[in-house]
User: Fold these one by one.
Assistant:
Number 1:
Amino acid sequence: MSTIYEKSDEGTHFPASDAPDWQESVFLHWYDRASGLGGVHRIGHEPNRAGGRSALHCSILGIDGYRFRRNDFELPLEEPTTNRGFRAGGSYWHIDRRNPRLEVHEPGVDLELELFDFYPLTDFFPSGGSLVDDFAKNHYETSVRVVGKANVNGRTFEIDGLGHRDHSWGIRKIQTLLSHRWISGTFGPHLSFGSTLWHSADDEFVKVGYVVRDGEVTYAEDVDVVTWQEADGFSHRGGEVTWYLPGGEEFSLQCRQVDGTLAQLHSAYYIDSICSVQHDGNIGMCDFETSNNIRAGGRPIGLLLNAATAVGLS
C-alpha cells in the first residue's frame, strides 16, 4: 500500500535526530526534447554535520556538445531565500507558490523552472529494511511537467518538458550502499513509471517497480534491469527495463541515453543518464541512475567515457 504525503510536507523539516547522517534533500531530473536540454539537480541539507553543511549536484546536459556540472557536498548550510525552501551554492528550491520552483544561477548558467505534478506525492518504497531505515525513511516521488527558461553559455532556451522529482528526510548512511539501479520517468499525465534495485552493505537486495496510469498505481510483481555498461566500467548508455505486472502483463522500455553526468555524495559515486524512451508511439524520458561499488572501495573516479566529470562549462 502506497503512502501519500500532503503538500505540507513539501518544505524543510526540523531534524528529528542530532545524528550527523540526518539529511533532507530534494531531487529533480528533466528533459525537454524540443530544445534538447535536460538536467539533474539535487539540493541536500545536512544540519548536524560540522556545524551545518549542504550538498549540491547540478548538471545541465545536451547543450550542443556543452555540459554544465557542479558537485560539492561540503558547502556551508545557508538560510533559504523563501520560507521552508532549499539552498545550496547557486541552486534554490521554492515552495512559496502553488507549484514548486527550481532556480539555478551559476557562471554561464541561469535556469528557472516551475513543476506541475502528474499524480499525488507517493512513497513507493517498502515499509522496512536497509533502503528505508538507513537511506530514505521519509520519501515521496511524482512525475512532472517542467516549464520555464534557461540561459546557457549565452543562449536562451524556452523549456516545456517532462521530469520526475523526489523529496526525502531522515537518516542517510551513504556508506551502506554497494550498488543500485533507479530508473524513473514519464510520458506525461497518462503514463509514468519507476523502479529501484538496491544492494546494501548487509547484502540485502531490494527490487521495487511500479507503473502509474492516469494517476492509478500498479506495483510490479518483479522488475528486471539490464545496463548498457561502457568499457570504463562505470558510465553507461542507458539500458532495458521490464516490469512484470499482475495478470501476466509485461511493460518493457529501452532507455537510450541523451547525456549523462557523474554525481558524488560523500563516499558514493553514481551516474545519472537522461534517456529517451518510446512506448505505443509516444516518446517520454527517464533518468537511468546507477552505482557500482561492490567492493566498497574509496578510490576517486578519474576516467569516464560517457558522463560529465569536469566542473563548470566543458
Number 2:
Amino acid sequence: MRVLQLIDSLEAGGAERVALNFANALAKEIEGSFLCATRAEGVLVKSIDNTVGYIYINKKSTLDIKAIIILNRFIKFNKIDLIHAHSTSYFLATIIKFLNPKLKLVWHDHYGESEFLDNRPRHILQICSLFFSHVFVVNSKLKAWAKKHLKVKSISYLANYAMLRTIPSETKLKGQYGKRVVCMANLRPQKDHLNLLKAFSKVIKKHPDWTLHLIGKNFNDNYSKTIFKFIKSENLEKHIFTYGSCPDTSTILKQCNVGLLSSKSEGLPLALLEYGLLGLPVIATNVGQCDEVIKDSYNGVLVSPNNVDELSKAILLYIEDEVLRHDFAVRFNKYIKTKYSKEVVINKVIETYKNIMV
C-alpha cells in the first residue's frame, strides 16, 4: 500500500501536524508513505522523517495547471494507491482522482468552526464527495453534518493523537520560571484569544508575576491586529508574550506550567493532547470533543466558551493550589498516554485503508 497525505501547508496548525504525524508513522507500517504540501511550506518541514517521500508543488490558484501536472506525475511515478486529503485539499485531490480513476480518495475533515456548521459552504464539497471512498471527522458534530450533506456512506470519527519530536531548541520563553501559562493556537477568530486576554488581565491583578505565552501563527489580519492592540492598550506587554509559529513544541511546553485553550469552536485539539504528553495541567472551553479528554474536576478544568469570569477563576484555581495542579497533571498525562496513543489511531487508519483497497 502506498499512501499520500495531502495538505495545504506545513505551518504548525492542528490539521498540518496530523498530516505530518500520519505520514511519519505510516512510513514504518506500509510499503510507501508520502506527503505533499500544496500551497506553502512552513516550520513543520523540519520534522518530516527521511523515510517519507515529500513534495511541495507551490500551488498558486484553485486551478493551477502546472501544480496539478507536477502532483499527477509524482503520484504516477511513485505508484501511489490512495490519497488522504486533509481539510480544503479535497478539491485538488478530487481533480487528481478524476485523472486517475483507480486511485482511492479519503477525506479528513478538520473543520475548525464545528459550532457554526449552518454557515459552512458545502456545494463544491458535496460534488467532490461523490469521489470519496471514506471520510474521517474530528468530532461528532462533523460526523452528523457529513452524514446529512455528503454523498458518501463510509464516515467515521477518528481521534487525533499527539507525537512530540526532539528538534534543536529555538524558543526561550520570557517571564519567570515556574509561573507560565501557555496557549498553543494559531491567531484565528475561533480560538478566541481576546477572551483569554481579558481573563488573564484579571488574573495578574492578584498574581502579577505570572505570564501568558501565545504560540501560533500571526496572519497579520484584522483579528491579530485586535489582539496586539488589546495587549498594548491594557499595558500587558510585560505579562503577555507572542512568539508566532514555532516548531519546537516539546521545548516550549517543558518551560510552561499550565496549558490552556479558550476556543469558541474545536474538533479534538491536538494542543490538548500535546499538553498532556508533556505533563501539563489543562484548562479548556467545553466545545468540540474537549470533554472527551478532560474529565472536569478530575484531570482538568472545563469552562464555558466566551466567559471571562469562568476562565479567570480556572487559571487562579491552578495558580493558588499547587497540589491540585500536580494531581490533575499526573492524571491527564496518564489518560492521554492510555487513550490517545499513536498505535491505536494508526491501526484504525490502516484498517480503513485496507477496507477501501479491497
